[in-house]
Amino acid sequence: MKGFWAWGAVACLLAAGNTGCYYEQWQNAERSNRILNEDLSRVKLDLQDCELQNRQKDTTIDGLNKQIAAKEQTIASLTAEAQNLREALAKAQAILEAQAGKGPGQVTVIKQALPEELDKALKELQKEFPDYFDYDAEKGALRWKADLLFPLGSDVLTTEDPKIMEAMKKFADIVNSDKGAGFDVIVVGHTCTTPIVKAETKAKFPTNWHLSAGRAIRIMELLAKDNVAMTRMGIMGYGEHRPIADNSSKEGKAKNRRVEIYLVRKGTVQSVSMGVFEVPGLGLSYLAAATETRMGS
Fold first, then answer.
1. What is the Rg, in whole angstroms, of the alpha carbon atoms belonging to the chain?
2. Phi-psi bin for 127: left (phi > 0), alpha (psi -120 to 50), beta?
3. Which pLDDT score, from 0 to 100, does residue 112 have?
4. pLDDT (tens digit, 9 = 90+) per residue, 250-283?
5. Residue 284: what pLDDT?
6. Terminus of the chain with fewer CB atoms < 10 Å: N or C?
7. For the residues of the chain, what is the DSSP string, one character each?
8. Cα 79–Cα 84–Cα 88 angle in degrees, nearest 5
9. How many other CB atoms are there within 10 angstroms of residue 145's CB atom?
C-alpha cells in the first residue's frame, strides 16, 4: 500500500512538471507570435511605402516621357524648318548665279502719251501754276521745284506759300477724276550734291539718297491726305545721282533739287528677274534680284 502511494506521488510530480513545461512553451509561442505580428506590420508599412514610391516614380517617368515626346516633336519641326531654309537659300543662290554679270538692272523711261483729256488737264494746271512745276507731256511727269516744297536740307513740307498746297490739291483732284482713272502715281525724289549739314536732318537721313526718298514719302503722304489712294502710289529716291543740270552752279543745283510725279498706267511699274522667298518661322522675306523697273526719271 505504501508503495502504491509512493508511485502516485511520483506520477503527480511528473504531471506537474509537464504542465510547467507546456505553459512555458505556450508563453514562448505567444511571444514569438507577437514578434511575428510586429514584423508583419512593419513589412506591410514598408510595402505601402514602396508602393507609394513606385507610383511617384511612375508619375515622374510619365512626365519625362512626355517631355521626350515634346522635344522629339520640336527637333522634327526644327529639322523641317532647316530644310526649308536650305531650299530657300539654294533658290536665292541660283537666282544670284543666274544674274551674275548682268549688272544691277536699269531704270528706263517709257515714252508714253497720256490720254488727251488727262494731258489737257495737266497742261491747264501747269499754266495756272507755272512757277511751281513743269509738265513733261512726253513722260507724263510733273517736275516740282523742291526748294518751293522743302527748306534746303529738310524733308519738312513748307507751308509758307498756300498756292503750293492749292496746286497739289488740284493735281490730286485730277488724279481722282475720271480722267485719271486707271493710272498710278509714282513720286520720285532728287537732290543736288550739297551734303546734309543740319544735325536733325542727318540724324534721320544719313545721305542725300535717304533724304530724296524721305521727301518723296512726304509728297505721297500729302497726296494721300487729298484722298489719293495709297494703293495707287509708290515712291523712289535717287539722291544726287540723276541730275538734269550742272551741279557746279547754284542755278544747276536748284534745278536738280526736285520732286517728280509720274502718272503711269496700272501695271506699268513692275520688277523682273526677281525672287522673293518667305523665311519660315522668322517672318522675313529674302529678296534676290536684278530688277528692271518700267519707270524712272
1. 48
2. alpha
3. 58
4. 999 988 899 999 998 887 765 444 444 443 443 4
5. 38
6. N
7. -HHHHHHHHHHHHHHHHHHHHHHHHHHHHHHHHHHHHHHHHHHHHHHHHHHHHHHHHHHHHHHHHHHHHHHHHHHHHHHHHHHHHHHHHHHHHHHHHHHTTS-S--------PPPHHHHHHHHHHHHHSTTTEEEETTTTEEEEEHHHHS-TT--SPP-S-HHHHHHHHHHHHHHHSGGGTTEEEEEEEE--SPPP--HHHHHH-SSHHHHHHHHHHHHHHHHHHTT--GGGEEEEE-TTSS-SS-TTSHHHHHHHSEEEEEEEETT-S---SEEEEEETTTTEEEEEE----S---
8. 150
9. 17
Set out the domains of the chain in order of their start, with CATH numbers.
116-266 (3.30.1330.60)
Share of the chain above pLDDT 70, in %: 77
What's the mean pLDDT in 134-147?
86
Q: Is the pLDDT of residue 4 over 60?
A: no
What's the mean per-residue pLDDT of the chain?
79
Mean pLDDT for 118-145 is 90
Nearest to 111 by CA among 270, 268, 273, 291: 268
Q: 147 CB contacts (<8 Å, ≥6 apart)?
A: 254, 257
Is it the case that residue 121 has pLDDT exceeding 90? yes
The mean pLDDT value for 31-47 works out to: 86
